[in-house]
Design brief:
heme binding, iron, haptoglobin binding, globular, oxygen binding, mainly alpha
């Protein structure tokens, strides 16, 4: 698992406070990128950026990431049920967790350009890598 220092954790938690209230827009933007494909979402009629199902899924993703921030010291435990859901029920390729992490980095950096310093970038990247690994836990 990616090791987050206490400094990294503090940076992530402080930065994530800026995300509050904008989760739906940020999540929608992140999943509107190459992540939202017919591979996993064939039951959705409209996969266009900003559509209702994409917006709803983006909000769901961001709620899970926000919850992970609040449980940053036990990401595997915090994300265990989501790992099981994605591994056994949804059968999502875990490589998509890395894609989503990258998309979130892009959206966060463009949404908060003045706050997304190199130090914040590194801490958020390490955190999202740890989240992706925790989500992949039940695939092993």
């Amino acid at each position: 698992m990616t090791s987050l220092s206490e400094k990294d954790k503090n940076i992530v938690q402080t930065f994530w406070a800026k995300v509050a209230g904008r989760e739906e827009d940020i999540g929608c933007d992140a999943v509107s990128r190459p992540f939202a494909t017919k591979t996993y979402f064939s039951h959705w009629k409209d996969l266009s950026p900003g559509s209702d199902p994409v917006r709803k899924h983006g909000a769901t993703v961001m709620a899970a990431v926000t919850d992970a921030v609040s449980k940053i010291d036990d990401l595997i435990g915090a994300l265990l049920s989501l790992s099981e859901l994605h591994a056994f029920t949804l059968r999502v390729d875990p490589a998509n967790f890395k894609v989503l992490s990258h998309n979130l980095l892009v959206v966060l950096s463009t949404t908060f350009p003045n706050d997304f310093t190199p130090e914040v970038h590194v801490a958020i990247d390490k955190f999202l890598t740890a989240v992706a690994l925790a989500l992949s836990e039940k695939y092993r």
